[in-house]
Design goal:
Shape: globular
Distance between the termini: 86 Å
Radius of gyration: 24 Å
CATH topology of the largest domain: D-Maltodextrin-Binding Protein, domain 2
Structural class: alpha/beta
Low-confidence stretches: 4-8, 14-19, 261-266
Largest sheet: 5 strands, mixed
Order of helices and strands: HHEHEHEHHEEEHEH
CATH architecture of the largest domain: 3-Layer(aba) Sandwich
Number of domains: 2
Number of strands: 7
Strand order of the largest sheet: 2-1-3-7-6
Helix content: 25-40%
């Protein structure tokens, strides 16, 4: 009968000759654990969240500063919803009341939309997946992408938010972001709307995320389930990141305050 007893020497030999297998098992276990966590961790449905997609450059979203900004924008969105509900006659003091907004996340995608690099090729695929899956509420994108999305009828008109004072236009030239309204057959209706705002004046985004706002535009996606709350979040983004917005003081060292400065002509 063979000796099946595991001695110390046998155990050491077993580990030595199988260390790579054990290493592989450990790696797979970690990956499966992360996958299990990501699939089981609660994620608010799209109707109860706002996702901000910052497209056009790498954005470090894992810093404490990002978490702080996310918390501020989330709080502002909730506050706006509470005020809206109160004005609609909802008892916001009720014990079981809570605003609809539960989560807000800032995401980054290094994609220019120009297709000039190998990275753009793979990023373009991810961008198309975002659109197909109808992910994201607020997009910061290049003029090329913005005009493409407007031509496809994928952007929310911002006229009403501007007229209500929720969004600040400042010195921006709205002619650059005004396009024909399209019907269900993608035919022009003869009506035009403002579909985006130049992001150039939101210089604080560069300080907070190293995100270059030159020739970038902020817009709300037509498939967003929270367009009004998204507009309220953009309002708070202007408060936080745009000197001069809503009457705030412009720092003396602010080189550019005009919304058209540094913009690429259409």
């Amino acid at each position: 009968m063979p000796n099946t007893k595991m001695t110390g020497a046998k155990f050491r030999n077993h580990v030595f000759y199988n260390k790579y297998i054990y290493g592989l098992i450990a790696i797979v276990a970690v990956l499966l654990g992360n996958l299990l966590f990501s699939t089981t961790a609660y994620r608010a449905p799209n109707a109860r969240r706002i996702d901000i997609e910052m497209v056009g450059a790498y954005v470090n979203t894992a810093t404490d500063a990002t978490k702080e900004v996310q918390a501020q924008l989330l709080a502002a969105g909730k506050e706006w919803e509470i005020q809206r509900d109160a004005e609609a006659g909802v008892d916001v003091q009720a014990e079981d009341y809570e605003p609809a907004l539960q989560e807000l996340e800032i995401l980054g995608l290094d994609y220019s939309g120009e297709g000039t690099s190998e990275n753009d090729y793979y990023a373009a695929q991810k961008f198309m997946v975002l659109l197909a899956a109808q992910e994201g509420d607020i997009y910061l994108i290049s003029r090329t992408l913005m005009t493409d999305l407007a031509d496809q009828g994928l952007l929310v008109p911002l006229d009403g938010y501007i007229e209500d004072g929720l969004l600040y236009t400042g010195d921006r030239s709205l002619g650059k972001v005004t396009f024909d309204e399209l019907d269900e057959n993608e035919k022009a209706t003869g009506v035009q709307h403002v579909y985006a705002l130049q992001a150039t004046p939101m210089t604080g985004l560069t300080d907070a995320f190293s995100y270059d706002t030159t020739d970038k535009y902020v817009c709300i996606m037509a498939f967003s389930q929270n367009p009004d709350t998204a507009a309220a979040v953009i309002h708070e983004m202007q408060v936080l990141f745009e000197p001069g917005a809503f009457g705030a003081e412009i720092p003396e060292d602010e080189a550019v305050s005009d919304g058209d400065a540094q913009e690429t002509q259409p």
